[in-house]
Specification:
5-stranded antiparallel beta sheet, 673 residues, 19% strand, OB fold (Dihydrolipoamide Acetyltransferase, E2P), D-amino Acid Aminotransferase, Chain A, domain 1, alpha+beta, Helix Hairpins, 5-stranded mixed beta sheet, 6 domains
Length: 673
């Protein structure tokens, strides 16, 4: 009984400190002390498994990593909301509701910028949870959801309860995560929603547990007789221990609802979490049932999306960054300004033409906004605020890193450093080579590449394959285990598909798609290096510029020597796609991919198409055969619908991949070939 009593006391303490930290942002003990309490509880529960239960805080620390997520079927389709971008659209919504003989009361609440999830409880215990997916099938992320401190593992209600919520990351936690990403040389998350989505979909729930995810719950998905109004549902959820939208108002008139939306727009940047709008819902559930649904959205709710925020600031200076191709890219250093929930202090100015067209000068007052709420851009110069002290800016004709000449080739917008040994170019080339889309060398981020280069351990991509564990141990931050992991990752990359190596070399105008085309049309790297301009021009996707660029690259003796070095070091030089594929079921079909897929990345989907001899294009035209549309598909989907092109979702696509022949695929799609 002594163990049972200590376990109970530890759980009470840990829950108390967790609630203080995650709900009130108060730390009464240090992280080290908290960790000691958790470790002691884990130890006692392991020694006394009869006392372990689902409500223990140890269930939030994450379990064994999964190889993949299981599917999660929603009992009730999780629909998305229609969007409005103007006051007129909100008032139109009100008129549509009233045209059905309904006198509504509305509830207005925050539109949290996160990731929708479904949570299931049975007999008061959290049993399952899944992502929205396509609304019908999502991913089972139960173990990751257990790590979210705002999700109660047990609730008072003992029947079946299915609730819907939005997982998000607070602004403060987002800054912590990106600081850690930067410290570890990893890519930064673009915004809190991006970080939340990436964190919730980690196969290792221990990683999710460290990310500090939060959730707001906003709906009950199954029927509970006593709940007849939305405002009552939110109150009920709060009593069950869920965190719900902290501000919601029940209003009788659309004019008042619009005023509330405007008020939310005023305070949104001061909230501790990101919102991208406000939601208006009809309060009375019986009125909702009368209005019903479209195939994708409820007719009783609408989301107002706030416009991209614009702010005025000053360009204090303009700096030049040198990329892997030698391009000198100007970047405006701004007087720091808060916009869309984050501090912006830099914005790309792209090239000299962009600067000249907008007449951007050092010292100018400018209007900036975040394009798509992510990327800062300079919209315009406030010329009436010029004082005469502003200075015209020209990109220098000397590289600021190596002092060699920089030139602008005819027909190009970029001014480039001509020195292929320029340290900035070399570093950027190395970073590109090891990146996920190229050779995908895990654990070798930007900071690691910089350290290796600065210490003289690597000067070109071949040097990466000469690294030893002893070399890595000489770097700050590396120990035995991390050194071995990186060497293993480097070794694994040797067997990559040929297209990854071609893309990793950074040949001008040869992107990932063109690299795949080269690997598909030539049996080996040797064949690529020996091909002529005419050989490349025979490839339908290749034009004069691309063909000329590849020929020029392999005319260079240094580049040919690099290929020989990589070959001698064991890097794969043979195309796995040189032979005719066993399955050419999609041959002759042109696909366009748009939107977010649930089970596949767009890259994986493209690989499946191309491995069956189909082609993938970036734009919809009358020559497109099939559009694969995921969630949040935009203009490409609309254009396909306007042109009468076959549109399929991911589930249909996965079934299509089972077809073995061209005729079988054509019959499945219902198209003539």
């Amino acid at each position: 009984m002594i163990a049972e009593e200590e376990i109970k006391k530890l759980r009470d303490k840990i829950n108390y400190y967790s609630d203080l930290y995650y709900k009130e942002d108060v730390s009464e003990i240090s992280d080290t002390e908290f960790d000691k309490l958790m470790l002691r509880l884990i130890e006692l529960e392991n020694q006394n498994p009869e006392f372990l239960d689902m409500s223990s805080p140890t269930q939030r620390v994450g379990g064994e990593a999964l190889s993949q997520f299981a599917s999660y079927k929603h009992e009730k389709n999780m629909l998305s909301l229609s969007n409005a971008f103007s006051k007129e659209e909100i008032f139109d919504f009100d008129r549509r509701v009233k045209s059905q003989g309904i006198s509504p009361q509305y509830v207005v609440e925050y539109k949290i910028d996160g990731l929708s999830v479904s949570l299931e409880y049975d007999e008061g215990i959290f049993i399952r949870g899944g992502t929205r997916g396509n609304g019908t099938i999502g991913e089972d992320v139960t173990e990751n959801l257990k790590t979210v401190k705002d999700i109660p593992l047990t609730i008072p209600y003992k029947g079946k309860l299915v609730v819907r919520g939005e997982v998000y990351i607070s602004k403060k936690q987002f800054e912590k995560i990106n600081a850690l990403q930067e410290k570890n040389g990893l890519n930064l998350f673009a915004n809190p929603r991006n970080a939340a989505a990436g964190s919730l979909r980690q196969l290792d729930s221990k990683i999710s547990a460290k990310r500090g995810l939060s959730v707001f719950v906003f709906n009950v998905e199954n029927e509970i007789e006593a709940l007849t109004h939305h405002a009552d549902i939110l109150d009920y959820l709060e009593k069950q221990g869920f965190k719900v939208s902290p501000e919601r108002k029940r209003l009788s008139f659309i004019e008042d609802a619009w005023e509330e939306i405007e008020n939310i727009g005023i305070i949104k940047n001061n909230l501790p979490f990101e919102i991208d709008g406000a939601v208006i819902k009809i309060d009375d559930i019986s009125q909702r049932e009368k209005l019903g649904y479209t195939s994708k959205t409820p007719k009783w709710a609408i989301a107002y999306k706030f416009p991209a925020e614009k702010k005025e600031t000053v360009i204090e200076s303009i700096e030049i960054q040198v990329g892997r191709t030698g391009a000198l890219t100007p970047t405006a250093v701004l007087r720091p300004v808060s916009i869309s929930g984050s501090i912006v202090s830099r914005a790309s100015l792209h090239n000299q033409d962009y600067i000249d067209q907008k007449d951007i000068r050092t010292g100018d007052t400018v209007i900036i906004q975040k394009a798509g709420e992510i990327i800062p851009e300079v919209l315009e110069v406030v010329k009436e605020k010029r004082t005469g002290s502003e200075m015209i800016f020209k990109i220098p004709l000397v590289c600021p890193v190596c002092n060699n000449p920089s030139v602008r080739e005819k027909g190009e917008s970029a001014i480039k450093c001509v020195n292929i040994s320029c340290p900035a170019r070399v570093k950027r080339s190395l970073i590109h080579f090891v990146s996920k889309v190229a050779m995908d060398i895990d654990k070798m981020g930007i900071s690691v590449v910089n350290k290796l280069y600065d210490k003289g351990l690597i000067s070109n991509v071949a040097d990466i394959y000469r690294l030893t564990e002893e070399d890595l141990l000489s770097l700050e931050g590396f120990a035995d285990k991390s050194s071995k992991r990186l060497i293993d990752s480097i070794e694994k990359s040797k067997s990559n598909e040929l297209y990854r190596l071609i893309f990793g070399l950074g040949i001008d105008f040869i992107g990932e798609k063109a690299s795949k085309t080269l690997a598909k049309n030539f049996e080996s790297m040797e064949a690529v290096t020996q091909a002529t301009y005419e050989d490349f021009k025979e490839i339908p996707e290749f034009g004069d510029v691309m063909a000329g660029s590849v020929v020029d690259f392999f005319k260079n003796d240094n580049n040919l020597h690099l290929i020989e070095e990589l070959k001698a070091l064991g890097v794969n030089m043979v195309s796995s796609r040189s032979e005719k594929p066993d399955n050419n079921s999609l041959e002759g079909l042109k696909f366009v991919l748009t939107g977010t897929l649930e089970h596949l990345s767009r890259r994986q989907a493209a690989d499946f198409v191309e491995s069956r001899n189909g082609t993938v294009s970036g734009s919809v035209s009358k020559n497109t055969d099939v559009v694969l549309a995921g969630e949040e598909a935009g203009s490409k989907l609309k254009k396909a619908q306007d042109l009468g092109i076959k549109v399929i979702d991911e589930n249909v696509f996965l079934e299509l991949l089972k077809c073995k022949t061209k005729s079988e695929a054509a019959e499945f799609l219902g198209i003539n070939r």
